[in-house]
Amino acid sequence: MTNNLDLNEPNPNILCRDFPVLVTGGAGFMASWLVKYLLDDGYKIRVTVRDMHNEDRYRHLTKIAERSKGSLEIFEADLLNPDAFKGCMTGCNVVFHTASPYKITGIKNPQKELIDPSLEGTRNVLEAVNKAHSVKKVIFTSAISAIYGDATDIDGLEEESFNEAHWNKSSNLKHQPLGFAKTVAEREAWRIHDAQSRWKMATLNPSLCLGPSLTNYSQSGSFDFIRQLADGTFASGVPDLQHGLVDVRDVAHAHIFAAQDEYATGRFLLVNEVMSLLQLSKFLHKKFGEEFDFPRKELSSRMLYFFGFTKGFSRKYVMENVGKPLKIDNTRSRNELGVYYKPVEEAAEEMLRFILDYNMLK
């Protein structure tokens, strides 16, 4: 089954081939798929990258453009430069703001690596939108971590499942800093949006994105997630953790659907299925066999509490997430955007095959 919105029949007042479309951070994991789909359908695409001299990071986009019906322009733009987006936004009627850091591991300075580029980047892009009078709609890529930080965030709420009405109130600079960055950035986006009335906005909150990449230079933290299930990091066992998962291509399509529909505004959770690490590991083991050290069991909460730091889990994270049930409601994205979700098992398999094909398993 395929997604049911026809890309050949866009709303002429929103996503229109007569006007260029801007995609910030267009060489990213999800954004590359978004750019590909738009190019294949004949749109005029402008993409921002951090460094135009590093052609390896966006060469895959120029190759896609060469064999597509659309056109592509590359602009250099630093999220922390308030004037960086003026030129590339002129004449655009839709802006997809996808540029934002996404690091799960190896974070040394969360303020500098996550918070500043997320928050200041949001301000700089949306203030440029305020000055670009051609822009009618903004599609803002947020994350599920702006909805909740820990599984226990649901405690005390009336609902049993997380939905678009919820905001992450548990993350901070020291605990789940990525979720904190996503939350403050999205809140700032809504503050700027609500202070004006010319342009509309939809924010998309995807869960962990799985699937193949269009480039082997992708720096998405999702690759670390799958890689660690196969490289022996968790050979002794995985925590009893549940994650919302979604195919990256479904997320890219959802961005287009949100841009095409004039009435698609507000927040949209993008998740297909909640799975435990062990469930996902068992599926990958079935597909790839004994060649890799996939985990076969779950570690006890007690063991993780005392030794979790060796696996990158703080004691607070263990207490608030390990062994806790997780439910996520994707009704709005299915009913209002028309997203039909692909099986996440297939996306995980394709992602690991991509990792192996490009010798990315260390």
Automatic annotation (TrEMBL):
In terms of Pfam families, this protein maps to: Epimerase
* Coiled coil stretches, renumbered: none
Q: What are the UniProt keywords, alphabetically? A: Oxidoreductase
- Keyword Oxidoreductase on entry: yes
**Known InterPro entries for this protein?**
Epimerase_deHydtase, NAD(P)-bd_dom_sf, NAD(P)_dehydrat-like
What Gene3D superfamilies would the database entry show?
NAD(P)-binding Rossmann-like Domain
Give all residue intervals belonging to the NAD-dependent epimerase/dehydratase domain. 21-261
Q: Which GO terms describe its molecular function?
A: oxidoreductase activity, acting on the CH-OH group of donors, NAD or NADP as acceptor
PANTHER family listed in its UniProt record: NAD DEPENDENT EPIMERASE/DEHYDRATASE, VPS9 DOMAIN-CONTAINING PROTEIN
What's the name of the protein? Answer: Dihydroflavonol-4-reductase
Protein species of origin: Reichenbachiella agariperforans
